[in-house]
Amino acid sequence: MSATAEGMEVSKSLADSGIEGRAVNISGAEPIRLETQTHAVGIIVPPPDIRAIVDKTAQFVARNGPEFEKRILGSEKNNTKFNFLLTSDPYNAYYKSKIAAFQEEAAGGDAAAVAAKAAEAAAAGGAA
Q1: In this predicted model, what pLDDT tens digit does every residue of 9-20 receive, in sequence order?
Q2: Helix residue spans in 1-128 (DSSP H)
Q3: Which residue, 19, 21, 103, 109, shows the most beta carbons closer than 10 Å to its own?
Q4: How many CA atoms lie within 13 A of 126 on its CB side?
Q5: Could you give the C-alpha distances from 120 to 11, 41, 65, in angstroms and in order?
């Protein structure tokens, strides 16, 4: 059987199995390059156990300032529960939005102002 005939036989068996679209490089063609997203866009809400830590940390950072966040980063650098402090973490945008919301609330903002500040922080965090 020639190489072409073998290739057609493989293609036919793939078509029969329903996975024809997933076959890659059967004929030695250039691999398909897929573009992927490398950072989170918008706000991804963490699961409840992590959300409690994020919310409490954001509240303290809003009250005590960015120095407090730096101290947490230093003391909890090996604790994965605090990965949301890193800009590369998917929950960082949620964290930043909570800080903005707590700061607006502390400044006496109404619910609409708090929501607007949180959305603004989320948009800035998603672009980072």
Answers
A1: 444 554 555 544
A2: 3-17, 48-64, 66-75, 92-106, 111-127
A3: 103
A4: 14
A5: 51, 13, 19
Contact status, residue 105 vs residue 118, Cβ threshold 8 Å: no
Distance, CA of 82 to CA of 13 (rounded, Å): 50
Chain centroid to Cα 96, Å, comes to 13
Residue 84 has pLDDT above 80, yes or no: yes
CB distance 90 to 98 below 8 Å: no
Tell me the per-residue pLDDT of 25-56, one tens digit each, with 9 for 90 and over. Answer: 566 666 666 666 665 567 999 999 999 999 99
pTM: 0.58
